[in-house]
Each structure stands twice: as structure tokens, then as C-alpha cells.
Amino acid sequence: MILVTGGTGYIGSHTCVALMNAGYHVAILDNLCNSRIEVLNRLARLCPVRPDFVEGDVRDPSVLDSVFARYPISAVVHFAGLKAVGDSVKNPLAYYDNNVNGSVQLLRAMQRANVKTFVFSSTATVYAGPFDEALRESDRLGASQPYGHSKLVVEEILADLQSAEPDWRIACLRYFNPVGAHESGLIGESPLGAPNNLMPYLAQVASGMREFLNVWGNDYATPDGTGVRDYLHVMDLAEAHLAALHHLQTVTSLSTKPLTLNLGTGQGYSVLEVVHAFEQASGQKIGRQFAPRRAGDIAQYWADPGLAKQVLGWQAKRGLQEMCADTWRWQLHSAKDGEPS
Ligand code: NAD
Ligand code: WQD
Q1: CA 274 to ligand 2: nearest atom
Q2: N or C: lower Cβ tally within 10 Å for the chain?
Q3: For the segment 45-67, what is each residue's pLDDT rounded down to a tens digit?
């Protein structure tokens, strides 16, 4: 059985679908600080069985010990955490507590339960730049804000743990820009309040919930002047977790370092390219205006996903049209049914 922390959240819920449809049994631990219990009903419709669910906090050792005592857990996929860069600048301690302390508490509970296979949600935000070429795992690291720093600290903790105890099997997966939703339209991303991220904001403009998109900056040194990112369909990302878990569970030679992989498509798209693709997918005209650059943004970055392909045999299959079409289907479903996640 796989323990999925943060499994009712955006990426966690899609990964649960991939895991359960591949035959894994799943137990979710989530404190519901950024997701809804209704997601479990949606998962039950998308998967052969309903996942087990424990409402609780990864920072709570007694909750963790009871989860490991109750379920025959063989591996942990750790999504639980806080993820808003701007919020982390205002509330750094909340981010270090949730993301760093939460991970340490979880790893200590795993040690007590003798469970040593761990997949960690890291981020492309750990790269320091320069960003003029595809980012590789060996590139320079450094984060300019507490969120990214909290992820980098956990990566370092995992490296120390793996070096001290080589029987651990650890993967750090650095996601680029996850977007989209399950093709059923039953689960997706439901940001609280006004979305910070481009794709959910576009979906709300297309549906008439918001008037127009602010395009943050059109004077970057990119082909059309707007920011370029490596958007990745959340189901491709979910399938990468499945591949990483399978790899960790079957690899025969133990390692002194965590397996660290970029997860992206390798292809960057500008804000305007995403807007046009979303107009095509939704059939809606999207109002936009150019606005000053957003503080902290960089012009462009995209992944070199070659190592993930080499080690896991994984590569993203879904393109920008599918990312937009699935986001739009989810937007229409969630507006109709009430937002489940
Ligand atoms: P999300 O907020 O939708 O999911 C996180 C889940 O964790 C939520 O269900 C929340 O309720 C739960 N949670 C938070 N703190 C918890 C705690 N202390 N104990 C138990 N549960 C807790 O976010 P997501 O987009 O699905 O991201 C999942 C992971 O991937 C996060 O660690 C995030 O930092 C990382 N990540 C996300 C992105 C992205 O763009 N979405 C990119 C890179 C990395
Ligand atoms: C993409 C592009 C914006 C909104 C963030 C986090 C990162 C990672 C993924 C967790 C940029 C532009 C956006 C809008 C716009 N999360 N934009 N108008 O900033 O690349 O990454 O999410 O690990 O850590 O920083 O994603 O979707 O916010 O922005 O013009 O209303 O869209 O300027 O060029 P970002 P994003």
C-alpha cells in the first residue's frame, strides 16, 4: 500500500488515480487545509476502489505512527505542503514549518516504521539560473524566496539521509509548471480566491467569472515579449510518479544519492501562446491587457527532461491543446457541480 500525503490536493489526487488504476492500494493523509473531502467521492468514481483516507497533519507524530501501524505501507509519495510563492514571502515560518518540519516528521515516522521508499514533490523553483538554456538537474541551485528555499532544504535533508542510510530509496521530482485536469472533468485544480497562476486564471476569464487577464510584462527578451514556461499536463506528471515509484521499488543497486529528476515537456510556451491555445480549446474570446512585470518573475525557463526519459522511460505525452481542453472541461464541470478540490 502507498501512503499519499496531500492526496486530496491537485497533483496528489491525479496521482492517486494513476496509482490506483495501476493496481496500487492507496491511503491518503491530508489535513484538508487546501482541498476538499468531496475529492474522495470523485476518486471513487475514477478508480477501481475508494482510497483509504485519514484526516490529519504530517507534522503530527502520533497521527503518523497510527497510519503506519494501521496500514501495510511500503512507500510514501509526499505532496503535502504549502505552495504559494507570494504567501511564503509574507509567512516564511508557516512554509518552513509545513514543508521542512512536515517532511522531517514524516521521514522520522518512516524510520520508526522501517519504510524507506520516498518520492518527494520538489520544484523547478530550486534552480538559480542562468535560464537561457534548458535546465538540467546538475545546474546551479538557489532559491530567492522561502517557498523554493523550503523545497531546497528538504532536498538537502534527503541527500544527507540517503548518504547516511543507503538502504533508503528516494526520488526528488522537480516539477516545472503543472496544469490541466483529469480528462473526465471530475477532478482538477480549485484555487481559493483569485488564482495566481496563469492557467486557472485563464479558465475563469473564459467562463466569464473574471473580466480579463493581466499579462504580466510584454518586454521580456522572449520571442513575443511575454514570459515563457514549460507547462506539463497533470496526468503526465501523475504517470511520472508511477514510473518513479516503480523504479525505486525495483532498482537493484542501492544509491548514495537521491534520484533527482526534472519533470517537464522540454518545450516552453509564452503567455500569449497559452492564451491563443485556450481560446481555441474553449471557443471563447479571452480579454487581456498588458500590465507591468510581476515582482520576482523571470523571463523564461524550461526543462531538459532527458534524464527522466533515460532513467524512468517516462516522457510527457500530452500537448498544450490537451492541457487547455482538459482545464476547460474541468472549469465547466466545477462551475456546474460545485468545486470539489
Ligand atoms: P495542493 O495545495 O493542491 O495540495 C497539497 C495538499 O496537501 C492539500 O490537499 C493540502 O490540504 C495538503 N496539506 C498541506 N499541508 C498539510 C499538512 N501539514 N498535513 C497534511 N496535509 C497537508 O498543491 P499541489 O499543487 O497539488 O502541490 C502538491 C505538491 O507539489 C506541493 O508540495 C507543492 O509544493 C509541489 N509542487 C506544486 C507545483 C504546482 O505548480 N502546483 C509545482 C511544483 C511543486
Ligand atoms: C506563468 C506565466 C506569469 C498569471 C509558479 C510558482 C512555481 C511553481 C509553479 C510550485 C508567467 C504569467 C500569470 C497572470 C500572467 N509552483 N501570468 N498573468 O510563476 O511560472 O510558477 O507556479 O512549485 O514555484 O512560482 O507560474 O502560472 O503563475 O505564471 O501573465 O494572471 O504567466 O507572469 O510568465 P510561475 P504562473
Answers
A1: 32
A2: N
A3: 999 999 999 999 999 999 999 99
**DSSP reduced 3-state for 309:** helix
- 264: cell is 517537464
Query: Helix or strand or coil: residue 264?
Result: coil
The residue whose CB lies within 8 Å of the most ligand 1 atoms, and thus the one to mutate among 3, 28, 29, 34, is 34
pLDDT digits (tens, 9 = 90+) for 229-238: 999 999 999 9
2-179+231-264+305-317: CATH topology is Rossmann fold (3.40.50)
- The pTM of this model reads 0.98
Q: Tell me, using a 6 A CB cutoff, whether residue 33 lines ligand 1.
A: yes
Return d(Cα 130, Cα 125) in angstroms, integer: 12
Residue 248 corresponds to which amino acid?
A: L
Q: How far apart are CA 48 and CA 50, in angstroms?
A: 7
CA 150 from chain centre, in angstroms, equals: 15
How far is 177 from 246, CA to CA, in rounded Å?
23
